[in-house]
Amino acid sequence: MLKEFKEFISRGSVLDLAVGVIIGGAFTGIVTKLTENVITPLITLIISFIFPGTKNVEDATKGLNFVVNGVKFDYGAVISAIITFLITAFVLFLIIKAVNKANNIIPKKGVEEEVVEPETSEDILQDIRDLLIEQNKKEIKKD
Question: Which residue has the higher pLDDT, 12 or 129?
């Protein structure tokens, strides 16, 4: 059982996943700070023009609730959370898009692999034909 566990842990995919989780955790800090310090203030500025007297999305949506039998349903908080999620997801999208574009611009170093095109059925049939012709030539020489 320990041997199987060791094989499982030492697989590349598990190690890649572990590295991805660690990098993702570190990247979360960058996205959070960018969202809190750049994107959210821009959204707050826009909301202050749309809803005068509000300071942020929560202020703009805090009146969006209703009460049934003394139980408060605050759908404004849900709308605020959705907006925050969309902002964060959009910022992450922009960062990943920029990184991918930078990776495409920068030439990759190292050995370039030769692209091997898969054989078509015509190629295989031509190989079989050539082999049969060679085989017939050998049989004729034997006779």
Answer: 129
Q: What is the DSSP string of 30-71?
A: HHHHHIIIIIHHHHHHHHHHHSTT--SHHHHHTT--EEETTE
Classify residue 62 as exposed, middle or buried by CB count within 10 Å of its CB (0-12, 13-18, 19+).
middle
CATH topology of domain 2-108: 1.10.1200
Q: Is the pLDDT of residue 142 over 60?
A: yes
Three-state DSSP class for 75? helix
Q: Amino acid identity, residue 140?
A: I
Domain ranges of the chain: 2-108
Q: Work out the pLDDT band at 37, boundaries 50, 70, 90.
A: confident
Angstrom CA distances, 19 to 22, 26, 33, 49, 101, stand at: 5, 11, 22, 43, 22
**What pLDDT was estimated at residue 31?**
75
